[in-house]
């Protein structure tokens, strides 16, 4: 291949396309790395947070259990525990005066004086049941979840800055190492509420750990393959999220679950020892010699040869960072709030919490596969806008469905026609919402320049974490109205679609190297 006449032509994209290879053996191995390791590990972090804090069925403990009465016999339990309806008993109160020899109706109740009994046949023992974080103490569970997401907003900014200052590889090593340490430590401090909160916050601090290597890999591939990498990563993350609840159910031990998933985090720092730093980042920082060395490493791995002329005439960008003129924080807030909120809402729909977590993940996989083709064919903007519109329609339609206890607490042995219609509408909304979320993951790295890419994406992720933080509060509105939270999420997505109209299309565009490139 002839050498270019002008050095200004020799940019990162020019070298990748003409001399290194945009999707050679090296990039394919990076894709495998993202799909089979990074995606599942990010799912381990977020999904385990839900699985170790599930609440087993519980009711007030009473001495009569010790005399041979069955804790699962509804007729016998009714002598001690007041009913909410035919199938459900109160979890936080029992009759005050119990006399099995009397036929007089006992209506006075009292807050559980002797603690609780837990049914672990379906849901294993968790820190919630071990420490009785139920009823008046249930705020502790929601506090832990809130602190997890609040710390994620801080962590994503910290690691974004670290990544842009010290490199993608170093930030990745630190993030996954902290995640592994925090997850293992959680097992040994579960009896101390404050230490438990601290280490769950540390896990939340690293919750978006997969975004650093995703940006790292994105900077090595051509525009035509970026969506493939992103969707593959998200599909395997969703697949892991769908399978992990059943793994947790099969082992029935939250401590073992946390130890296994956290120990695997240390694989990433070990693999990162052999991972070359992003050439784009090195060029943006003016690290000329290391950039040339890494270009040669990748080219050799791909079976390509680079000339000395090319390496000596690379155009390096060292323009200092300036405030970005386009920050898409509002859209990130709206989409993240609806995405996490719909996941939290789904866990309230079934007596078996593992079922709908897995169902949501299956929907996510289908969406990831479909949206990859659509976004590459029709563009990011158009696919996002239409999916936002459809998501709003499906979420809004749930408001007009018949409301009943049966379809809002779905039991596999008895699924009514109402519940079937509701589930169809809910899962279609989830399908389109996931499509929007998937494109959003890639959109930021495609817009922001190399010098500040991780910091800019980090700001968006932090704003999204605020949305994640408030989404459980929005779901809490279901106690006032069963579907009002879904309507709110639908409105959020509609607003995100409107915002998308004013944003640039990135399909087929080169990754911007400078802040000026971002504006062009």
From TrEMBL:
Subcellular location: Membrane
Keyword Translocase: no
Keywords assigned by UniProt, alphabetized: Membrane, Transmembrane, Transmembrane helix
Organism domain of life: Eukaryota
Primary site of residence: membrane
Matching Pfam families: Sugar_tr
Name the record gives this protein: Solute carrier family 22 member 6-like protein
Species: Leptotrombidium deliense
